[in-house]
Amino acid sequence: IDYDRENHTELLWFFEGFTSYYDDALLWRAGLIDLSTYLELVAQHLRQVQQTPGRQVQTVAQASFDAWTRYYRVQENTPNATVSYYTKGALVALCLDLTLHRHGTHLADTMRRLWQRCAGGPMTEADLRAVLREQLPHIQGLDDALSAWVHGTDELPALALLADHGIEVKQEAATLAQTLGLRVSEAGSLTIQNVLRDSIAEEAGFAAGDEWLAIQALPDTANAETSLTNAPIWRIHKLADAQHLLGNAHGCVQAWVARDREILTLTLQWPARLAPTQCQLKPTAQDAPALTEAGADLGARRWPDWC
């Protein structure tokens, strides 16, 4: 390897993503965190990928190859154009482990076989696929599934696989920033860092770098001119200020922003309620005792709770 230049590879979803999966699973396996904490870490990975529109336009293999030119050169459109090979790679590992467990084996066995095949040296994606075929010679479709997860942009089947293994997936409310499609900084002032694609904020015309100064509710959207005259203007410093001032109101809101030394007004469709997001994971009641019992015996535990 020539360390004087970038070394491009499509396998960072494996080298870094699978490491991220083990980061969390080993903490649970070693008894340093409990099952609920471990599942919250898995839920964080799910939320992060779901809140990245770039997952729909770039595969995790492409994200791996572009690490030198895109992932480590972050700009305002990065969430819309790319996906983290760390986070999505960890979910690929999760999906693979859960799929293997359906057939009586597990990812730890895959890793041991891969180590033996490559003698601890360089590996390719073909090596991983060969090991999986050796591990499950009679199972059809695993090769195609891996291709879809790594070289496609469809949603990963993580939620369905978790449900199959006794993990209940619950919805909880997203934050206001997630509902609007914004990533913001609230250090001193409310500054827009990213505007997510196909979001309420993008439709309103927000741009990265805007300083959101104030809001003005428009109770009478049929007569916008009269509404602007009578509606109070509230100064805000955080998104929580807007949420507090507007409460459960919905309809058009005038957002006052500073951009390039100018004050602009943007018409924002204020959400009636926060969007739901599937992000809370917990064992189902009937499976919780068995999982807890399995977690108590470190010697018998193979891989995390589903094993």
Describe the structure.
The protein is α+β, with helices and mostly antiparallel strands and 307 residues long. The chain has 16 helices and 8 strands. The protein has helices at residues 12-15, 17-29, 35-50, 60-65, 67-71, 78-81, 85-102, 107-118, 125-135, 142-151, 158-164, 176-180, 200-204, 224-230, 239-246, 288-296, and strands at 167-173, 182-185, 191-195, 211-217, 233-235, 251-259, 262-270, 276-283. The strands form 3 sheets. Strands 5-4-6-7 form a 4-stranded antiparallel β-sheet. A two-stranded antiparallel ribbon has the order 1-8. A hairpin with a 2-residue loop joins strand 6 and strand 7 (262-270). Helix 7 packs antiparallel against helix 10. The longest helix has 18 residues, at 85-102. The protein is elongated and about 75 Å long. Mean pLDDT is 86; it is low at 286-303.
Encode the helix/strand succession as letters. Answer: HHHHHHHHHHHEHEEHEHEHEEEH
Distance between the termini: 38 Å
Give the integer mean of the pLDDT values. 86
What is the 3D shape?
Answer: elongated
Describe the largest sheet: 4 strands, antiparallel
User: Uncertain spans, ≥5 residues at pLDDT below 50?
Assistant: 286-303
Number of strands: 8
Instruction: Tell me the radius of gyration.
Output: 23 Å
Give the helix/strand class: alpha+beta
Strand residue content = 15-25%
Proportion in helices: 40-55%
Output the strand order for the largest sheet. Answer: 5-4-6-7
Work out the helix count: 16
